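Thread: Modeling a multi-component assembly for a lab meeting

Hi all, long-time lurker, first post. My supervisor asked me to bring a structural picture of a complex we are working on to next week's group meeting, and I have zero experience with this. I have the sequence lines for every component (612 residues in total). Could someone generate the structure of the whole assembly? Inputs are pasted exactly as I received them:
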Amino acid sequence: MNVSARIVDGTEISRAIRAEVAAEVAQLRAAGVVPGLAVVLVGADGASEVYVRSKARACREAGMHDRTLHLPAEVTAEELYGVIDGLNADPDIHGILLQLPLPAHLNPKPFLERIDAAKDVDGFHPLNVGRAFIGDPRGFVPATPAGIMEMIRREQIPTQGRHAVIVGRSLIVSKPLMSLLMAPGPNAGVTLVHRHTPDIAPFTRMADILIVAVGKPGLVTADMVKPGAAVFDVGITRVPDPADPRGYRVVGDVDHAGVSEVAGAITPVPGGVGPMTIAMLLRNTVEAARRDAARTRKRDRRRAAP
Amino acid sequence: MNVSARIVDGTEISRAIRAEVAAEVAQLRAAGVVPGLAVVLVGADGASEVYVRSKARACREAGMHDRTLHLPAEVTAEELYGVIDGLNADPDIHGILLQLPLPAHLNPKPFLERIDAAKDVDGFHPLNVGRAFIGDPRGFVPATPAGIMEMIRREQIPTQGRHAVIVGRSLIVSKPLMSLLMAPGPNAGVTLVHRHTPDIAPFTRMADILIVAVGKPGLVTADMVKPGAAVFDVGITRVPDPADPRGYRVVGDVDHAGVSEVAGAITPVPGGVGPMTIAMLLRNTVEAARRDAARTRKRDRRRAAP
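Re: Modeling a multi-component assembly
Sure thing. I ran the full set together rather than chain by chain. Output:
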């Protein structure tokens, strides 16, 4: 057998979503609303700065308003609360994103909770986490799991009665995914295994849909994958590579070459799940702007009523 | 092989927890705080009324204050909001429980969200759902999954690196359990399967801990259980039984006699998971009272400061 898996091209899918977002932004602008995203970056972190710049560029390309607030690493908790309160009150800002990690002296939890849940387009506020868990559509789903669900839908990967296996138990990716995949609609069964599972292979081999989000290159090899499975590789690890001008290349958790010969579909790294996250973040921000506009209209109608 | 599983006696465990709760209540009373639980019951529903009476009795036995508000089935949304607002503002009430189901004309969601999250001892408010999901200890965990985790702890059933399989996907039982079992601490792997899973047996046979919460008598038979597994039967179904003076008896989802010969431990129905729920509800209410007392002390100290 020497089948080759279909490559799920995240760059292409995210481009399509960003074009749809741009069309929705144009509609909102025509109605006088410019969706705005604020990104709060504390201190200097190379990877975060690159990521924040990509977000800002993607916003502008979609016709959205963006604002980046770069605060010094030694910012106090009171100052950071003040910045968040200001953005919460700012009618031009519909989405607020606190770039993580924060400097070590700041625990992110109270700041994430300070963000107005209606502007929490990252979906990290416990109220949104709870709503997403319950299946309440007012909750914002974090960008990475939302992006994977969107890839599954657009690639028409069947989920009904199939079994999904998630490796890793992160709060931002794995746990929301579990909840989304088993929900009415997708109706998949789910398994989640992690570092404390002595042997993950008996589980990964049961997966019709396999999602690996650990950060360990080469963790999943061909013998651990069910023939025909759809494999989503969420891992992003820099490995030294003297042949690359940057001195490193980025790899996932899946042995891509080997698994491609067994799987039915597979996401590459880079160019798979990664590009989806910014697209989904833009979509959440447009959705926040749309809801805000609807609330404003309702309020205005109420005021105008005799 | 004719081993017989250890019976996990929920009645006995819940009695021990209620005694612990009573001791904590006595301490709080000595400090001038009487933990109070309010139960709001709308309309007449036989099963709900029985359950509400048991809760009230359990409160009194533990030395707590209880209040049952029985509203007519034709109560309006505004009236019900008013009742909840009153309880939210009442300093004698630390826990508020809206007994479900509500009459058909009332959607429970906005009422559950109206309850002050600090008094939501049922753990149904999305903020508490989110906190429990994140592992934030301020969230209240719903009584049934909390009760099962407590049985696992007290019976010293190993979870670290073991695999738990949950059958059924209810929001109140299965999904929170999944989250609790995989969390740091228990560190179990988890699988959740449900009505859309074509064949659950290959999954249930992998379970070191098997939790069945569906409501289908006889769903799980001995051949579907791994030898030595701990089996928690959450199902409660009334089946006609002319030999019983009530004309029915209550059974679980597990073929108890058959599975007892394979499993290492098993909960009976009745007398297994059921009795744990009221005990955990009392514990959540005492916890709410304790937090409220701590907040009051803090506020008083701040006022007393020069």
